[in-house]
Amino acid sequence: MDRGPIIELIDPDLETLMERFIDSSNKDLEAMRSALALGDLETLIRLGHTAKGTGYGYGMRGMGDLGMVIETAAKCGAVEQCRQGIDQMAHYLANVTIEYK
After folding, report:
1. For the CA atoms of the chain, what is the radius of gyration?
2. Is residue 4 pLDDT above 90, yes or no?
3. Tens of pLDDT along 42-84?
């Protein structure tokens, strides 16, 4: 996995929403970790799908891509891939830099 800088170019009209969006995404990340610990793949499917849709919707392509990975892995019962996707999501959220363009 590439651990270089993560920069997302976001529409300036979304700037006032981004802090709340990132907070909500971090809460969803914690819910993903809990679901993984419980083996609750249905919840991982739902949360991965949400991350995919909202990530792409807000212009956070990396988040959308990782949400798709988590959703797909959970649908296939690939627990280790779910774990890797969640770890990558945590890294992404902790390190993303948002630039408004």
Report:
1. 13
2. no
3. 999 999 999 999 999 999 999 999 999 999 999 999 999 999 9
Q: DSSP letter string over 16-51?
A: HHHHHHHHHHHHHHHHHHHHHHHT-HHHHHHHHHHH
In whole angstroms, what is the distance from residue 20 CA to residue 12 CA?
15
Contact 7, 95 (CB under 8 A): no
**Residue 3 dihedral angles phi and psi, to the nearest 5°:** -110, 25
Q: By C-alpha distance, which of 45, 20, 42 is closest to 53? A: 45
Q: Tokens in use for 12?
A: 């300036």
Mean of per-residue pLDDT scores for the chain = 95
Structure token digits, residue 79:
């627990």
Predicted model pTM: 0.93
Extended strands (E) in 45-92: none
